Model the fold of this input.
Amino acid sequence: MAEDRDKEPDNYAAMSKEELVAQLETRDSKLKQYSSMQKSTWKQVNSILASIPLGLAILDEVGNIEATNLQLRQMLGAEARDLFGKSIRTIIPELDIEKLDSSSGTSAPHRNKALTTEGKSFSVELSVNEIFKDGKKLFLHIKDISEAEKLLEYKMSLVSMISHDLRTPLTTMRSVLTTVQDGLYGALNEDGSQAVNWALVSSDHMNSILANVLDVEKLDSVGLVPDKTETSSGKIVNEAVSLCRLYAEEAEVELTANTESSLFHADEAKMIRILVNLITNAVKFSPPGGKVQVESDLNGIEIEFKVKDQGPGIAEEMQEAIFNRFQQTGLSKRRGKAGFGLGLAISKAFAEMHGGRLWVESDGKNGSVFVLRIPL
Done:
């Protein structure tokens, strides 16, 4: 368009009537074409905005509403005229424009409460982009997350209820089995002792699964914070090995510990959980007669734990994926050793909340070594 205008004559007075009419007709045609293109563009933009499942609002630099999309108006039960020119705080009273603003042009999403025209409060997730046209404008994205929050609450209640209803009888069952194992009801023969041992292993395994499920939900909702105290690597290894000893015996796997005990600060219970998850995983994939070795040592400014097994190994392409939730190797499924795929994900989360790292080393054929490093 600009190039065409440059070609237009500057001196209309020197043109004949016919030339002038032709020139004006050409310009009128171009203006109509430009207007049609502009209308088509706006129609496409409005169509795109209408299809976005988010509430959108354009604010001036002090937070007054200049434009809204249909989704936002439906969310609030309002008409465009009800919102135009009003402060964004009329619909999001606790919104801090300064905090929402971002010098980088885009703010990270955060949660707040919005109000409908009837005064009903609901949860929203907000983010903003800066746009510059006739001064600074704020392009606000508003997502209704009230239903998602309700679903999360229902899920947490369900998980809590199930875990409580399962844990209580499991605790009772384990207590009874322990008294039977101790001979309180009379001496057991070899078969009876083996049956009780297996029942104890199974109840401990179920308790471990329940703990992992609960921790996953806590990570998703409220988060988990380590309760750090002074402890020692030797104590953590010995506790974890003791908890896994019966499981290893039932699987006919030799479980050994070789540790150089060093003091450091950590959440002792979570550290033990990490090693228990790693050890039970190693035992599960070790053949009868195999060996699982647990080690700890001081490595510079970190405590290093290792769990070594003689299982089939882990292929290189799976060595990161196995730490994802509900992820299992194809080998585990083929060998009938499938679980929920939560233990390694929880262990990695626990390691990272300590500022540590957890990974696996394997050639994919001859066993695996899980390495855990935690800062002093």
